[in-house]
């Protein structure tokens, strides 16, 4: 197992109380696998990814659990070790490319900087000039690989001269520059047009295949996850509420929340008569119902749902947190 996250807890201590943004999340990721992490906005997807990199913003903090990467617990690493691992072992792509790109530096130079930080061409027998040449060649190669046209010219352009889709390609090139074992992609296509979205997802899929790099794709769109991921974990109010192989989740969603998400996607179930959004809204994490957090929105709620629900293991990697399944 490449990555095994056990009972991860990331809380925010605020003046109004403790917010359990990530509340006991457990996920596994195999070498080269694509896992989708799906859920409505505010359910803790980004904080889960940031926790994996130990980059949770203040006043948030990881308060429990373990993050086993190739067997070693990332939560026990020194901050120096973590810095070395970021980018090289786990790289992240953010929703907004300008989170990563610096507007005042040339795009090619920014990709090259990433190679340099991680000492990709640190052969001391090479002169600085030789090293620079190697780095530049690699940048051009990365730009070609991520589908940036005329990379020789584009190398010298600034981020604002790139379209949104091209900026995201540059960010992917940066993420790929160190050939990480895991790519964490946080809504990488949400800011883009539908056609560009598909191009970027195809690009990531191609890279996943050619490099055997594992991907965790975070998206609020179950449709996107269904097309792209082998397995899906559905998150609600800080917890995973269902997990399984994509085909099984789509054909036979078990949790009422997953069923609701599926009903609200137009293109997956074309034969269904009409779209039905999930009623109600995402709960306030400061004010969660004591039992099943989905209870206020659930059509199947019964008395027992007023108690907290454990994750049930149905075998074959299928997990669900709902009282309807014994
Ligand atoms: N800076 C912050 N201060 C307090 N709470 C926060 C902060 N950032 C995030 N949270 C809490 O963490 C929850 C999960 O956030 P996030 O992981 O960004 O959700 P998602 O990515 O699924 O939309 C939010 O609903 C919010 O309650
Ligand atoms: Mg988010």
In terms of topology, how is this protein built?
Elements: E1 3-14, E2 17-29, E3 34-38, H1 45-52, E4 60-69, E5 72-73, H2 79-85, E6 90-93, H3 107-117, H4 128-145, H5 151-154, H6 164-176, E7 182-186, H7 194-211, E8 214-219, H8 222-228, E9 231-236, E10 239-245, H9 246-251, H10 256-263, E11 312-315, E12 318-320
Parallel strand pairs: 3-8, 3-9, 6-7, 7-8
Antiparallel strand pairs: 1-2, 1-4, 4-5, 9-10, 10-12, 11-12
Helix pairs in contact: 3-4, 3-6, 4-6, 6-7
Overview of the structural elements:
It is a single chain. The chain is built from ten helices and twelve strands. It has 326 residues and is an alpha/beta fold. The chain folds into two domains: 1-89 and 180-274, P-loop containing nucleotide triphosphate hydrolases (Rossmann fold); 100-179, no CATH class. The strands form two sheets. An eight-stranded mixed β-sheet has the order 6-7-8-3-9-10-12-11, sandwiched between helices. The chain has a four-stranded antiparallel β-sheet with strand order 2-1-4-5. Strand 9 (231-236) and strand 10 (239-245) form a beta hairpin. Helix 3 packs parallel to helix 6 and helix 4 packs across helix 6. 40% of the residues are buried. Residues 45-46, 186 line the site of magnesium ion. Magnesium ion binds at residues 45-46, 186.
